[in-house]
Amino acid sequence: MNLLARRWRRLVAGGVAALATLALIPAAPAGAQLIDVPNPIVQQRADTSIYKHTDGYYYMTASVPDYKRVELRRSQTLAGLGSAATSTAFTAPSSGALGGWIWAPDIKFYDGAWYMYFSASPSSARFDQRLYWIRNTSANPMTGSWSAPQRMTTGWESFQLDPASFTHNGVRYFSWAQDSPSTSYNSHMYLARMTSPTTIDTATAIEIARPTHSWEMEGVAGVVEGPSPIVKNGRVIIAYSASATDSRYKLGYIYASASANLLSASSWTKKSTPVFQTANGVYGPGHGSFTVAEDGATDMLIFHARDYATPNPDALTDPNRHTRAQQLYWDANGFPFFGQPQETGSGQPGIRGRHSNKCVDDYDHNTADGALVRLYTCTTGSVQKWELTYVGGYYRIKNAYASKCLDALDGSTALNSDIGLWSCNGGTTQDWAIVDQGSGWFSLRNRASGLCLDNYEWNTANGARLSQYTCNGSQAQHWRRG
Ligand code: AHR
Question: What confidence tens digit (pLDDT) does each residue in 455-474 have?
Answer without folding.
Answer: 999 999 999 999 999 999 99
